[in-house]
Amino acid sequence: MKKKFDLELFLNEPVSRKNGISLFHQIYEGLRRAILSKRLPSGVKMPSSRLLAKDLKVARNTVMDVYDQLIAEGFLDSKARTGTFVAENLPLELLETKRAENPAKSTISRHIAKRARVFGETSFWFTPIKNAPRAFQMGFSAIDEFPIEIWARISSRKIRTMPRKQLDYGEAQGYPPLREEIAKYLTASRGVRCETSQVIIIAGSQQGLDLIARVLLDEGDEAWIEDPKYNGAKAALLGAGAKLVHVPLDSEGLIVKKGEQLSKKARLAYITPSHQFPLGVVMSLPRRLELLEWANKNSAWIVEDDYDSEFRYEGKPLMTLQGLDNNNRVIYIGTFSKVLFPSLRLGYLVVPPDLVEDFTNALSFILFHAPMLEQLILTDFIREGHFGRHIRRMRNLYAERQKVLINAVKENLEDFLKIEKDVAGMHAVAWLKKGLNDAEIAKKALEQGVYAPPLSFYCTKVKLPDALLLGYTGIAPAEILAGVERLKGMFKSLKV
């Protein structure tokens, strides 16, 4: 018996010009779904394009375009002087049917590399909070205060005037004028000793850490990391197959002698010397010189993550470890995500001259190059002085927000938390009353819409007093006060 086409078999709902979806896609998706679900079985003869267009009240060209697309994808067959039919052999049929029946289950055995499992096992302490204030998330800039009008004006100008050649692939190392501006800025403000040729543009500091680990470490190489530590660095190093050596800190920063006791053949040390994450310790000059001597003596590398050095509220920013390095053992990493806004996803590395080619070659396969338009905009943003003004303004703003947080905690939570002024950074450490478990308190706080990660989450082998980490730079004063109130209610409900 001849199979006939039934218009009702593929129309789940009428074709409409008012639903925001093109007529082509409505008809195409309707026919495709009907064929894959066998509501239009193989061998059915399709109506002529003229007849179907009349039935659907659309232009014939629209139906012809749909037929052509489905024929090209193998869903329909066109036979000369006979007509158009649903194809007899559908390579996607089995796949689509199984997916529709049970999308969650698969009997196929799947193998992933051991190093890939690191990323699932190493997390950032974060659970999205819907419809709630962001207090006290860490590492966020004050995007509510970012000069978006200036950024938009530069963006518009660049789009109008940039040569078409800049739509082509750029240099893997990054846009040269941007690298030049970064080199000048780092030399003047951070005491970094570098030439433009040593600067490499990356897509944020996390990619920089991944790149460093790929280039400098072989699987099984030992690497020092601070304890407590930044988990993003931990993931990057483990992802490259490194064996981590967790080195404790004291009031002067990473204890180099302890690191040497734990590992005599480490190939790399990752540190945050200007404002240690998460404790906020500033590495002393003697300890910096000791670390540099260790690296030179052992032909090891130092990765200096200068993640929030711009935000020092008393005195001038400290000179970098890289600026003290006379033997080209330091790789310096910085980011614009925390200084400007997170979605920018631009950062930079400063690498020793003899490593530039190795890093650039690796980056060309990982990223090829960072987005060009953002690099062009950022170049002018820095060159025209907006960057420097923004940092100075944010430094004052963040100092005020820190003051609001500290005063609010002292006035409302002194029975539960001890917090002190910090001369730098983007978060504060709030030490818990003895007997309180920071992981449990952080979980309870999260249930109240307050993000206050526990210090213990960042510790591996070291045991420190319980504390919460409270970010304030990206939090408006009203949100800071509201967050403190919610913490106050949470503590009272615990009856501690």
Total of DSSP H or I helical runs spanning 4+ residues: 17
Strand content: 5-15%
- Structural category is alpha/beta
What is the total number of structural domains? 3
Strand order of the largest sheet: 3-10-9-8-7-4-5-6
CATH architecture of the largest domain: 3-Layer(aba) Sandwich
Radius of gyration: 29 Å
CATH superfamily of the largest domain: Type I PLP-dependent aspartate aminotransferase-like (Major domain)
What is the CATH fold-level name of the largest domain? Answer: Aspartate Aminotransferase, domain 2
Question: CATH class of the largest domain, anyone?
Answer: Alpha Beta
What does the overall shape look like?
globular
Q: What would the average pLDDT be, to the nearest integer? A: 88
The description of the largest β-sheet is: 8 strands, mixed
Distance between the termini: 81 Å
Following the backbone from N to C, one meets helices and strands in this order, namely HHHEEHHHHEHEHEEHEHEHEEHHHEEHEH
The total beta strand count reads 13
- In percent, how helical is the residue content? 40-55%
Uncertain runs are 97-103
Strand and helix layout:
Layout (H helix, E strand, L loop, with lengths): L22 H14 L12 H8 L3 H13 L3 E4 L3 E4 L6 H9 L12 H8 L26 H14 L14 H15 L8 E4 L2 H12 L5 E6 L3 H9 L3 E8 L2 E2 L1 H7 L5 E4 L13 H14 L2 E5 L15 H4 L5 E6 L11 E4 L5 H11 L5 H12 L2 H27 L4 E3 L7 E6 L5 H10 L19 E5 L5 H18 L2
Parallel strand pairs: 4-5, 4-7, 7-8, 8-9
Antiparallel strand pairs: 1-2, 3-10, 5-6, 9-10, 11-12, 12-13
Helix pairs in contact: 1-3, 2-3, 6-14, 7-14, 8-9, 8-13, 15-17
